[in-house]
Sequence to fold (657 residues):
Amino acid sequence: MKKYLFILLQIIAIASYVNAQTSYNCSSLKSSQLAHEKSKIVNTDLLNYDMSYMKMDVQIGVQNNSIKGNVVIRAKSKISSLNKIVFELQQGAVIDSIFVNGKKEIAIINKNIREINLSNSIQNFRYFNLQIFYSCSSTDIISDRSICGMLTHEGLCTASNSEPFFTSYWLPCKQVLEDKIDSMDIAITVDDSLKACANGILKKIDTLPNHKLKFNWKTNYPTAYYLIAIAVGKYVDYSFYTQLPNGKKMMVQNYIYDYSPTILTTSKIYLDTVAMLLNYYSTLFGEYPFADEKYGHCMAPINGGMENQTMTTIYSLTNMQMMAHELGHSWFGNQVTCSSWSDIWLNEGFASYTEYLFCKKFRGESSALQLMDKFQQSAKIFGFTPVYIKNAINPTRIFSLEITYQKGAAIIHALRYEINNDELFFKAIQKFQTDFKYKTATVSNLIQTIYEVTKKDYQYFFDEWYYGVEHPILSMRWNQQKEKVMMIVSQTNRQDTIIPFFKMDIDCKFLGLQKDTIARLSLKSKTDTFYFCFSDKINETAKIKFDPLHWLIVDVDTIYNDLNLQPDYASTFRYCNQNRNDWILFPNPSTGNFITLSHHYESSTLEVFDIVGRKVFYYKNCPSNIPIQVNLSRGLYSAKLTDNSSNYSSIKKWVVQ
Fold:
């Protein structure tokens, strides 16, 4: 979702927008907003007040590409004596007048900063009202951009796109992430042949003289500055209601180009899928955060999509993967917003991971693995750059497709594996969403939340994968003597002076002549030695595979049978006896109809949980080495086996294909 600046455009080649299927235009839209690097330095005076409410009343002239109106901001002073109010508005805009608490004031222009030296200071942390009457023309709005000009076509459309630093190109504002606006009223006056959409719900439409309509929108949810949005065009409103998992009904509202009936017809099937996806994401992350208002789309001539709160602007409603990404932002970016652009991964990395979850749920395992392989490949190619952005001033780096989005999603997948318990992984995400609901958060906040849920400190993981660089390259020597297996695993990376080794777990698949099994190895140094008992003979052709289910960002150098290795009898015997209470589930992966457990318990209970922690299968007095009928659908499960005599239990991952 790379987002252009405020774009006042005419629609061009509508059919090409509808039919295009370009993945990750979200990144290209946002990162290409400027062809040159643009610094964002927050004026410290912006931090002296908190915004609580905004009322916007504007007229959009799509014929002459202009915006004119007034904005009322209600805010509270954060200091005992506020004698200067600072806000942001691009230098080319014209301010007709400014009032503070009803008293006319004058603003000094300092590039895109407007400074008001108050004639009467605001005392004792009190609230104040700031009203600004202003106007911008298209020339003013695009004066600082070296890409994207005015495009002409018979149908007119106007849409805002503001991330990361460009709300001030069309709206007087305060571009500080941590100061969300608690509520807004947005009134947009347009020609009566057009419709206008914005954040929140449409309260009413006023009929005005001279063939004008005023669309009055309202939102009561806290909104980050860059998620404020307006769009005007020739639209048809396609709205419907869907039911969330808790039984609550909510609106899905879509403003679709009214140029051809085929656009609506083509879009409907995808919008129906969005309704199902709202339900699915609510199950994984918690209830959709803005259910009292809406989720919706507004088509606009932008190169991709933009996750404006409650109203995604998007070029096409036939790219389901992009629509899944934008919907994912409702939790990651909109409900919980990164505290600084350095931690944009909290927005874009997680939204990209929702694409993977969408593919797996609605398109199947093969599609999801293909997408994750792409993410992991980007992570390897761009391994020399951390996901964390130390100096986040360049939109191209902030919204890097390969690093922020794809590498970011790949390390979330690896984190999920490292936690090794899907119930805890999604519980941590839900707690993070609850703890920072309608607020901003840092990656440190996420690390703490994961600790609170899992009772394990994963700082090492983030030091390696989020703040660190590169990825491990593994080699293995192994040998088998009867049932005894010895393995020596070594790792290196291209920057091992920075990250000497990656502390991590990894699955190792033994391919036998009669059966396969997967063992989980814990790598704790540059070279680790492991002993296993494997009753079958390892297949000399297929042998052993690392990470068979594609969880991790790893490369494998060599795996070979070293006949000189002599499995130490005492160590292997001790390992086998220590793990006598271990058990095997096979086949794994399986078709989901039958599984077999091999264990040594006299009496045991099997419980199977799905990806969100729901118990989907229960079997008391589970037999050993006898097939059990389970009949489960495709997906990832956790199988828990409990020794009824000692209450000892352990969990294994189980994949149903």
Confidence is low (pLDDT under 50) at residues 1-23, 34-39, 139-154. The first helix runs from residue 14 to 19. The radius of gyration is 28 Å.
